[in-house]
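Please decode residue identities from the backbone states below.
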């Protein structure tokens, strides 16, 4: 702190240097929590909350939350890069993109798949598995609705902006003491 004419002046350089050191970690934790929260809320918050489409098959895991059968997708959210210039959060799950953006995938029907369908039919007695095991199709087309859980979020950026401005104000006041 410099004192000219008994007027206290904060050490702006020290304040901003420390803030730039703390900022990547705060952004990293806040962003990861924001994206993981999508799984708890069952939707994504950009400018406003956008709930995920409900399942077409209500008998599939009744009462179970969407995209959380094992928690692997939610747990795959991690920091790719975090430094003073950039913080990038992503996922290592190979199937994350189809869930996040939606779309259609095609799979060739294999003997192993038909064996699994028979197993599921015997375990559940659900006719859907029987018809899948008996299908004459060579290719299955699976359509996934968009259920965004990660991506750009105005709400997240607004929260980070508010934190930065509050921190600057708080740290300058502390530096004057």
């Amino acid at each position: 702190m410099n004192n000219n004419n008994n007027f206290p002046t904060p050490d702006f350089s020290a304040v901003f240097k420390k803030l730039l050191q703390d900022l990547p970690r705060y952004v990293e934790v806040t962003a990861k929590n924001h994206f993981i929260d999508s799984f708890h809320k069952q939707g994504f918050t950009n400018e406003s909350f956008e709930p995920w489409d409900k399942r077409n098959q209500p008998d599939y895991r009744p009462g179970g939350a969407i995209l959380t059968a094992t928690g692997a997708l939610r747990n795959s959210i991690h920091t790719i890069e975090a430094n003073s210039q950039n913080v990038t959060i992503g996922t290592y799950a190979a199937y994350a993109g189809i869930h996040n953006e939606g779309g259609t995938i095609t799979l060739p029907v294999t003997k192993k798949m038909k064996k699994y369908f028979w197993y599921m039919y015997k375990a559940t007695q659900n006719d859907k598995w029987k018809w899948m095991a008996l299908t004459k199709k060579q290719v299955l087309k699976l359509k996934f609705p968009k259920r965004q859980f990660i991506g750009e979020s105005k709400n997240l950026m607004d929260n980070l902006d508010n934190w930065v401005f509050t921190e600057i104000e708080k740290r300058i006041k502390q530096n004057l003491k």
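Observation: The CA atoms of residues 42 and 65 lie 7 Å apart.
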